[in-house]
Amino acid sequence: MCRRRLMNLRTPCTAAVGLVVVLAATAGASTGPPRLQQRAIAQTKLLFQHLEGPQQTASPATCNEGQRPSGTRGAFLLPTRSFGSGDATFTCRVSARVVVLDLGGAIATEDDRGSDGSVWETEDGEVLLFTRANLERICDDLLSRFLPSAAPATLDSHPIRGTAVSTRAFNVRVNPGAPEPLYQDSIDLGHPGRLAASYCGWKAEIPLSRGRHVIKVDLADDTHFTYNIKVGR
Q1: Could you tell me the maximum CA-CA distance found in the chain, to the nearest angstrom?
Q2: CB within 8 A of 194, min separation 6: which ones?
Q3: Which end is more exposed in the chain, N or C (fewer Cβ atoms within 10 Å of the end residue's Cβ)?
Q4: Whole-angstrom Cα distance, residue 218 to residue 121?
Q5: For residue 26, is pLDDT > 60?
Q6: How far apart are CA 150 and CA 161, in angstroms?
Q7: What's residue 203's pLDDT?
Q8: What are the φ and ψ backbone dihedral angles of 62, each rounded to 5 degrees?
Q9: What's the Cα-to-Cα distance from 111 to each of 43, 83, 194, 196, rounded to whole Å?
Q10: Is residue 119 a contact partner of residue 130, using CB atoms and an 8 Å limit?
Q11: Confidence of residue 219 (pLDDT cuts 50, 70, 90)
């Protein structure tokens, strides 16, 4: 039984009262190449840094917000779906020759509301609280049970292949204006403005030549992202 609202992903959950979908596994083990895990962590941190409201479809809201054209450690992190749904088009001017694209996923965050029903019950009846120690286990299992494949995407009309990724728990910065109950959770846990999180989903590192490129992604809930990218020097 899922008792938390989704972030980035829609799945068949009931009694949704919290933030994101999470599941449980019998053991925690991060998934995917280590470099791509680090890219996923950086992209998730950027998402939270610019997350301001529940109707926000993507974060950052614009492509070059909070990031130089050269990107982050050699790769440009494209905006990621957040809470809202609908179509979005981004104009991106980059000098990095690699961009990181999210192809559907979810983010599990910690809270202290276990006694208030903020729990996940596994298929075999195990109940997990949303503690930092459980987040990695949660995201491992999410990949196999709710995210069997990446969202369809193309680069200049050619299909993009994604890689499954789940990460260790890491800290994200939460703004006071972020959707409820994120900031309140950080207060309740004793560290206002900071939460532990774990990402699970699909990512793609896409090398680009100089010039113009178009990336299109068909996400869940009739949400379509188009990235118009100009790669300069």
Answers
A1: 55
A2: 171, 172, 173, 174, 186
A3: C
A4: 30
A5: no
A6: 8
A7: 97
A8: -125, 160
A9: 22, 18, 11, 9
A10: yes
A11: very high
